[in-house]
Each structure stands twice: as structure tokens, then as C-alpha cells.
Amino acid sequence: MDTSLIAAQLYTIRQHTQTVGDFARSMEKIRAIGYRAVQVSAIGAISDEDVKRIAADNGLRICNTHIDFERLQHDLEAVIAQHQLWDCRHIAIGSMPAAFRDSADGYKRFAALGSQIGERLAAADMTFSYHNHSFEFVKFDGRAGLEILFDESDPRYLQAELDTYWVQHGGGDPVAWIDRLTGRMPVVHLKDMVMLPGEPGEGPQQAMAEVGAGNLNFPGILAACQRAGVQWYAVEQDICQRDPFESLAISFANLARMD
After folding, report:
1. Of the candidates 224, 226, 223, 244, which has an alpha carbon nearest to the alpha carbon of residue 235?
2. How far is Cα 165 from Cα 209, in angstroms, rounded to an integer?
3. Helix axes 104-123, 145-152, angle to 10 degrees
4. Which stretch of DSSP H or E encloses residue 187?
5. pLDDT tens digit string along 185-208?
6. Is 235 within 8 Å of 6 (Cβ atoms)?
7. What pLDDT sits at residue 11?
8. Least confident of 34-48, 189-203, 227-241
9. Which of 11, 79, 138, 150 matches a 20 to 30 Å C-alpha distance to 132?
10. Rounded CA separation 2/46 (Å)
11. DSSP 8-state class, residue 99
């Protein structure tokens, strides 16, 4: 695939981005792997100007971010200014606050709030997307929470940052969900799944893996992403079984070999 479209989700290396010095060294490593873009998430108290300078010094584009719900609700103008400085159009929320998760009505309320935030961001030529985990596949009156969220929100203003691992973890089909969200998903999160031995008396356990090192149907996933109009492919691995930079390198190399 076109490696210029692959971004490193910095949440993967969050323990290495908490100071300006660590952030700078980490961006050097990311660029040396071959990445040309990053998603800013879970970094330390580093100024917006330093983030921009260090990314630019390493030839890295900030293609998207994860922003806390509180900031999106109460400090959106500052969020917009931050992203204008970074020349970054795509903003996402990493998860739904717990207060909305327990009922269909909660999902509907969040859909309305997300649409309102997205409308304000659209006026600034930015997009707003929702990043899923697997709790959104709990059903309410026969409908999964994720279905409610996207059915009840305005597709112009609340888009998707679908996570392939978490869809599979929740019992969904990543390819089917990507197809379902065609035209509504500027960024996708790519991570693979393996089954590891469980504790004595337990069966195998699902675990995150580097893209191409697990069981997910990545040829089908990437084809669906092309059909869906995905612009950026963000590699994320919340938990790595090895050094996280090595995990990012394995995912990048495997993606580079895929059609």
C-alpha cells in the first residue's frame, strides 16, 4: 500500500512522549521506521508550538488527534486554534464517557452532542470522528450501541475512526463495518488480533498484535478502506508484547508489502 498514508498513533508509545526531549527522540525513531505522519494522543505537557516544530523537523505530518471530551465540550475554540497551528483537519474522541454507555438513550444523547461538536468543527473545515472499543457492541433492544450511535447522529458531522481490533473483539466484522461507514471514515485504526494461552483453567485469550501478525483479514480490510474513502491508516497497538517501536516497525513493514 501507499506508505505515505500510514500514520503512527502515538498512544502506542505514550510512555516515550511525556517530555519534550523524549518526544523529540521518539519522533526521530518514528521517522526512521518510515512513517511520514502521526496521530497525536496521550502525549505529555508539551507546548503546541514544540509539537509542531519537532514533528516538522522530522518530516512528520500531524494527520489526526484524540481530544478529551471535556475540551471538546468546553474549550472547542482553543482546540480549533491548536489544530489550525498543526495544519490538522481530523479530530476524534478516543472513547465514549461512561455516563452515556448504559442505555440506548445514552447513546442517542451522545450522538446528538457529537453531531453538535462536529458541526462546529466542520465550520472550521475540520472533521470529528468517534473511535470505538468493544463495549459499543452491547445491544439495547436488539441494536448494538455502535449502530445506535451512527444511526442517530448526523453523518455530515459525526464520523468514524473505526478500530479493527476492537470491532473483532466485540464480535463484529471489521470489513462489514468499514463498508457500512463508507464515506464517513477519514481515518481508520489498524491493529491485529492473536489468541494467547489463558490462565490455567481458562481458554485462549484475545490479544493485540502487529498488523499482519495475527488473524484479521487485512487484505479484505484494506480493500474495504479503499471503497470507504479512508484517507489515513493509523497504526495503533495499546499493548505490545515487545518494544513498542519494534511493534510499530513490524506493522509498517507488513503494511508496505500489502496491496
Report:
1. 244
2. 9
3. 40
4. strand 187-190
5. 999 999 999 999 888 888 889 999
6. yes
7. 98
8. 189-203
9. 79
10. 31
11. G
